[in-house]
């Protein structure tokens, strides 16, 4: 390894460098145990009542539309305006289940028409939910979600994937 011309001088300068700690009683005493994660509490752990109401209303509207046979309308309602600001995992899981039930109710032949009826923002939200559905360990929706993914990318393009993967707003 070749040494630079300043390396020798730096080493000589550092050899004369010393640090004096001084009296250790002058240092601050920090209670490290108070900084542990177990004792930490978030300031705001409550869930906004409007978010809970929104998720419950969405589930009710999707079920109503599915009972009427309007699977396309249920998908539009399910993917519209997701609860991005919700930190409660149980509520997000309930909302994801609502979306998955609406997606699974659509026949494979009707998927392209349903996706074409969505706005570009709704298509991006749909792709977010598709990826969240892939993360479900049971895998009960995986085959159907692959069809949805294929058709959503045909409509939304690769830009949709890029926007979803780089977005900080998640649905799960």
TrEMBL record:
A Gene Ontology BP annotation from the UniProt entry: Arp2/3 complex-mediated actin nucleation
Subcellular localization(s) per the UniProt record: Cytoplasm, Cytoskeleton
Keywords assigned by UniProt, alphabetized: Cytoplasm, Cytoskeleton
Signal peptide: none
One annotated Gene Ontology cellular component of this protein: Arp2/3 protein complex
Protein origin, superkingdom: Eukaryota
Role description: Functions as a component of the Arp2/3 complex which is involved in regulation of actin polymerization and together with an activating nucleation-promoting factor (NPF) mediates the formation of branched actin networks. Functions as component of the Arp2/3 complex which is involved in regulation of actin polymerization and together with an activating nucleation-promoting factor (NPF) mediates the formation of branched actin networks. Arp2/3 complex plays a critical role in the control of cell morphogenesis via the modulation of cell polarity development.
Family: Belongs to the ARPC5 family.
Name used for this protein in its record: Actin-related protein 2/3 complex subunit 5
The organism of origin for this protein: Fonticula alba (Slime mold)
Lineage: Eukaryota, Rotosphaerida, Fonticulaceae, Fonticula
């Amino acid at each position: 390894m070749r040494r630079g011309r300043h390396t020798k001088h730096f080493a000589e300068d550092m050899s004369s460098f010393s640090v004096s700690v001084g009296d250790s009683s002058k240092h601050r005493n920090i209670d490290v145990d108070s900084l542990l994660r177990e004792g930490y509490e978030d300031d705001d752990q409550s869930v906004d009542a409007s978010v809970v109401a929104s998720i419950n209303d969405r589930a009710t509207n999707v079920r109503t539309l599915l009972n009427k046979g309007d699977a396309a309308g249920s998908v539009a309602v399910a993917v519209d305006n997701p609860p991005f600001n919700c930190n409660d995992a149980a509520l997000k899981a309930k909302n994801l289940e609502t979306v998955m039930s609406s997606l699974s109710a659509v026949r494979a032949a009707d998927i392209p028409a349903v996706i074409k009826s969505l706005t570009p923002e709704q298509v991006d939200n749909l792709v977010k939910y598709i990826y969240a559905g892939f993360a479900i360990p049971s895998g009960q929706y995986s085959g159907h979600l692959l069809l949805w993914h294929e058709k959503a990318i045909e409509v939304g393009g690769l830009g949709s994937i890029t926007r979803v993967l780089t977005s900080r707003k998640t649905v799960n």
